[in-house]
Amino acid sequence: MKKIPVIIDCDPGHDDALMLMLAFGSGVFDIKAVTTSAGNQTQDKTLANTLKILSLIGANVPVYRGAETPLFRNLVIDENVHGESGLHGVEFIEATLQAENQTAVEGIATIISESKEKITIVPTGPLTNIAAFLLAFPNLKNRIERISLMGGGIFRGNMTPLAEFNIYADPEAASIVFKSGIPITMCGLDVTHKAVVYQKDIDLFRAIGNKSGQAAAGFLEFYSVFYRENRVELEGGAALHDPCAIAWLINPDMFTSKFCYVEVETKGELTSGATVVDFYNVLNRKPNAEVCYDIKRDEFIEMLAAAIKNLP
Ligand code: BDR
Ligand code: CA
């Protein structure tokens, strides 16, 4: 089967780490590059974590350093979920890969302009790099096949009652992306809070017996603590947000979704960073995103386990 050419933009982050394992282990993608966003931690740390995870899973692709801060706002990080390093839970991973000299925006532009086929972009952190790229290279927009992202929510937030972290961290960037006209798949909190990983799944990943499975289990054991303490309605599970954006590209039939018109609130006193999703089409505007809101959880876990098995 022909591989899907993608660029991944992420901020590892525990669920970003699992997303990279799924992307590389699935065998479905031709991964042109990984770029890093500042989000779960500072740019220094998310870049270092990306290099470590890719080294651990034996992935040799160009890695480009992204923006240090959101487009117009101060950096917000998510240390209480992901720890001081951004990837707490596994003692020591040596990075054998190095970042390229070009920036993320330059790297994305080079890859897209040199590619004969359209490229899909998979962002799983704040959308700063992607918006900066779209502003700097508007002529390359039509070379993007789709953006499959983790962010937002139809009816809920996790940073404020209505704003999800990735959108909250850089709402202006998110607004540029949602207004771009590029086909978008949005995996927000509605679906990611159903893509839950339980202790039995963590044990399954560890039992695979390879170092990627061990690392996945270590990451998820740390990550689950926040969810057990703060999201009790998930009944001991942890929401595995970021792998959803990759899983949809592998098998969209695993998801339930609806085409909706989505805008990002950039000004609201109570609602800054909220995705305003016209789920019932009350505005009667042309949908700009396929919004996912349910997932076949057991298939999702099987997909992750199968990918981890293929890694070192
Ligand atoms: C998003 O924020 C981060 O904590 C996760 O990596 C995910 O991308 C969920 O709101
Ligand atoms: Ca993330």
Could you write a compact summary of the structure shown?
This protein is α/β, with parallel strands linked by helices and 312 residues long. It has 12 helices and 12 strands. The protein has a single domain, classed as Ribonucleoside hydrolase-like (Inosine-uridine Nucleoside N-ribohydrolase, Chain A), CATH 3.90.245.
Provide a descriptive summary of the structure in words.
- This protein is α/β, with parallel strands linked by helices.
- The protein has a single domain (about 5-310), classed as Inosine-uridine Nucleoside N-ribohydrolase, Chain A.
- The chain is about 40% helix and about 20% strand.
- It has helices at about 15-25, 45-55, 80, 105-115, 130-135, 165-170, 170-180, 190, 200-205, 210-230, 245-250, 295-310, and strands at about 5-10, 30-35, 65, 120-125, 145-150, 185, 195, 240, 255-260, 260-265, 275, 290-295.
- Strand 4 (about 120-125), helix 5 and strand 5 (about 145-150) form a beta-alpha-beta unit.
- The longest helix is centred in the C-terminal third of the chain and has 20 residues, at about 210-230.
- The chain is globular.
- The two termini are about 25 Å apart.
- Bound molecules: beta-D-ribofuranose and calcium ion.
- Calcium ion binds next to helix 1.
